[in-house]
Specification:
Blueprint: E1 2-4, E2 18-20, E3 25-28, E4 32-37, E5 48-54, E6 59-61, H1 62-67, E7 73-78, E8 81-83, E9 89-95, E10 102-105, E11 108-109, E12 111-117, E13 120-124, E14 130-138, E15 141-152
Length: 157
């Protein structure tokens, strides 16, 4: 699930268009749309429709806004091994991945992050050593998989 402006740009949790009031409620300052899959339900952009969730001026509780940003879940990393030099493109599958803004391998940032759908992303590994945690950062915080990727030394020969 993603939240979008009318022009199709994604809304992050930090940039949710709302102005704080004296009470916990917030006033939505820009029309907000929700994206839902249709058809095969593959989560690909061409398989989604956008519906207006909150028109500008709507007052909602901040907690309702927070619930819209579901944390990412990581289910698989493929391949799960690669050379210590890095540069391997890995595919990460899970759910709510459309808000992932960074992926790290043992604390080192991956490169060329490409969020393909709510259920899949690709990223290139940085150089590293041994078994490392893979961590995904999104609007709701971070999720990690201990020993999610293992760097292997090149075969001697």
């Amino acid at each position: 699930m993603g939240l979008y402006r009318q022009d199709g740009t994604r809304i992050t949790k930090a940039a949710f268009p709302a102005a704080a009031l004296d009470d916990p409620p917030v006033r939505v300052t820009d029309d907000v749309y929700i994206s839902e899959p249709y058809g095969r339900g593959d989560g690909q952009p061409e398989g989604s429709k956008r519906f207006m969730l909150y028109p500008a001026g709507t007052i909602v509780l901040r907690s309702a806004v927070d619930r819209l940003f579901t944390a990412a879940a990581l289910t698989s990393i493929s391949p799960a091994t690669g050379l210590a030099a890095g540069g391997i493109t890995v595919t990460i599958k899970g759910s709510n991945l459309d808000g992932v803004s960074a992926v790290t391998f043992g604390g080192a940032a991956g490169t060329e992050l490409n969020v393909r759908s709510t259920g899949e992303l690709t990223v290139k590994t940085p150089p590293g050593e041994g078994a490392v945690a893979v961590e995904l950062a999104d609007d709701s915080g971070t999720v990690s998989k201990a020993n999610g990727f293992t760097y292997e030394a090149p075969a001697e020969g």
